[in-house]
Every structure is written in structure tokens, then in C-alpha cells.
Amino acid sequence: MGTKQTKGSQPGSAGESPPGHHRKKVAPRERGDFLASLVAKSGEKFGKGAGPGLPPYHRRICMIQDMLLLVKQGKQEEATELLKNLRQDLGMESTSLDDVLYRYASFRNLVDPITHDLIISLARYIHCPKPEGDSLGAMEKLCRQLTYHLSPHSQWRRQGIMKRKPQSCLKAVLMGKPQDNTVDLSGIPLTLKDLERVTSYLEHSSEHIDTVELCFTELTDEMLLQLLPALCGLPRLTTLALNGNRLTKAILRDLTETLKDPKKFPSVTWIDLGNNVDIFSLPQPFLVSLKRRCPKQGNLPTILEFGEGQAEKCVYTKSSSSGVLLGVLLPQRRFQQHHLEHRSRVR
């Protein structure tokens, strides 16, 4: 499946390819070439909203595909360089493999531990390929998982956006009471004009909303600030998903200041800010404010940063509400044991 994804990552060159080779690419349409259509459709759907050019996830998906292609071609040095660029684009700024494998294993304050764990696994496969077994197949699997995590195709399929116009999907969501107490706008590119309708809907349905999904909606800092008064006034809101947008670290100051007021976001326990422009870690006051809203809950989106010498690490546990991995505190030994078990499941 990963092979098909990589072949499908060059839709622009299809016209130059030999006819037989082109037919070979198109045949597995429902699996591998869907990724090619994802890249093409994202170019059509996005970039027309508030932000210029394509959203950050589009660039990251292309880098993953290109890296896998280089590995298949035996170009380890080029693949290593591309992996370094991908790490830096995702906030893992160190270029040292030791830092990638060990320094970031604690996931301290990271906004997206899943991505970092997959990047660490990719680094191991590229730098230390195993002579036995299907090493390439394992790497293809990791690339699929990382692509799935960083791209909106699951939201597009669920919302039917692949076949319907975004405005039709938006209108359908904003009709009647929220289904399962969730306002799910994931994958629908929003404009400033759309935000007026969304704000009105949130205010009129505030007593029925537990979750707001705004993943991959082209949100910018300015747009989120426009939505913030309506969002922070939702009394039952527990989960706010903002990943895959155009948000920058500048918005963290506004969110942190808002969270300092216990009357705003009174029930929220989880805010997902991963896969944005340059938000790679969360400030401690932000996390402390979330913790105060759920003192009996041991899980946080990430963990507070420890002082040197403290042998506590962050591992992952599945959140039933948001479906993402949350950081919890465990001693060093349990961290190592869990990490080994997690890697064996990935294989």
C-alpha cells in the first residue's frame, strides 16, 4: 500500500510517463493513489481561504512520500537529509540522531507526541535498517501511519467532502442540534464570512455541545480570535480540536490568557493544536490551566517539564474522548517497557 502511495505522489508527471507505467499507477485507485488525489485536491480546496499558499500539512505529506521513494531507490543520504528537514518542519530542530532517538523520547510539553514517536521510528529504520525481515515494508507502514495522522483525508471521507461542495457540508452540519453533542467541521475550509454562521450556531446550541472539531479548516490566528468568545462560552465543552490549520505560536498567548479565567472554557480538558505552522510545544501555564479544570484526571495533552535528575517520562494512553494519545507520568522503567511494547505493536 505504501508503494502505491509513493508512486501516486507525482501526479504532475503522469502525462510524461509511458502509458503502461501510467496505467500501473492508476489501477490501485482506492488505496495507494488516494494519497495522490489527496495532494491534488488539497491544492484545489485549500489556499483559497484566509492563508496564502498551501497549508503546512500538504508540504509535510509530500516530504514523507519523497523520503520513502528515496529509500526505495537506495539513496540513504538523500533520505536522511529529507528526514532532517521534516523533523525541523515539525519542530524537532536538532539534527543529531542521538537527540532524535533519546532527547525527544520524554515528549516533554510536546503538542503532538504521536508524530514525534513515528518520526523517531522512521529515523531508526533509515539510519539502522535491519538486514533480516521486511524492513522496507515496516517503513512503508510507518509512512502510511504518519501520512494518515497529518492529513485530512479521513475527515474528507467522513464528511463526504470528496464528492460534495464544502458549503453544502457546512450547511448540513449547522442544521438542527449537534449530532452526539459534537460540532464536526473537520476538513471543511472556512472563510471569515463562514465564521459568522459558525459563531451564531455555537451560541444558540451552547447547552448541547461537548466537542468542537475544527481540524483542517484553514483557521488562522485572526479567525480563531474571532471564534474565541463563542468557544470559551460553551459551558459543556470538553474537547476542542484545532490541528492541521494555519495557527502560529502567537495564538498561544491569547489561549493561555483566556484559560487563566476559570469562567472561560469551564469544562475543557483537551485542546489539540498539533500539525499547525509552528506550534510544537505548549507553555506550562497553558497546561496548568487545563489541569485545574480536571484535577481528578491524571491525563493531560502533554506533561509539565521536569527539572534535571527527575526520572519521570511521558508515555501514551488512548483517550476515549478524543481518540488521540495523551501524556501520563510513569517512572523510567515503565516508560522503557511501554515503549518497547509500543514498537512491537507497530511492527
TrEMBL record:
Keyword set includes Plastid: no
Recorded coiled-coil stretches: none
Gene3D superfamilies for this protein: Ribonuclease Inhibitor (3.80.10.10)
Keywords: Leucine-rich repeat, Repeat
InterPro entries: LRR_dom_sf
Polar residues bias locations: 1-12
Segments of this protein annotated with the region Disordered: 1-30
Record has Endoplasmic reticulum as a keyword: no
Similarity section: Belongs to the LRRC75 family.
Protein name: Leucine rich repeat containing 75A
